[in-house]
Amino acid sequence: MDSSYQNNLTATAGGLQLGATPITRTYSRFTTVVTAGDSAVLPPAGPGLEYIVKNAHATNSMNIFPAAVTQGGFRGDGPNIPAGDSINALAANAAFALAAGKAVRFFCVANNGIWDTLPTIP
Questions:
Q1: Is the pLDDT of residue 101 over 70?
Q2: If pLDDT is split at 50, 70 and 90, which confidence band does 40 have?
Q3: Three-class SS state of 115
Q4: For residues 28 and 22, what is the distance between their CA atoms, to the nearest angstrom?
Q5: What is d(CA 109, CA 106) in angstroms, rounded to the nearest whole number?
Q6: Beta-carbon contacts of residue 78 (< 8 Å; ≥ 6 apart)
Q7: pLDDT number for residue 2
Q8: Measured distance CA(5)–CA(53) in Å, rounded
Q9: DSSP state of 25
Q10: Which CA distances in Å does 52 have to 26, 39, 81?
Q11: Could you read off the pLDDT of 105-119 as tens digits, one per residue?
Q12: Are 108 and 41 contacting, i.e. CB atoms less than 8 angstroms apart?
């Protein structure tokens, strides 16, 4: 894991996956979350990748999305396996809510398109 970082990031207003603030460094610290649900997006999940994200805002939760297909996410394996990356047991393309003042570690061990977290919530 490298030590690249981003500080004083702003989560994108509106809480959408497409157009969300990209997480591009190993450590990312969001200080501006204007309304609850403003968003950021992880890069495509691949084995060995790891990112740590801190929501440093005092009161507002933020959404962190996995990558959609158009953002390089998992392409799917037919009608029963949806396209787009996922986080933990959430559906493909579903947001992970990160509470104000909390941090989370996203990592991908073996499967392209699947992020796990510490702590493992939800």
A1: yes
A2: very high
A3: strand
A4: 10
A5: 10
A6: none
A7: 67
A8: 10
A9: S
A10: 6, 15, 27
A11: 999 998 889 999 986
A12: no
CA 101 vs CA 31, 32, 51, 56, 81: distances in Å: 10, 12, 17, 5, 34
Task: Give residue limits of the domains in the chain.
Answer: 5-118
CB 34 within 8 A of CB 60: yes
Per-residue pLDDT tens over the stretch 58-90: 999 999 999 998 898 888 776 666 789 999 989
Token couple for 79 = 């009608």
pLDDT at 1 over 60: no
Q: How many CA atoms lie within 13 A of 56 on its CB side?
A: 13
Class for domain 5-118, per CATH?
mainly beta
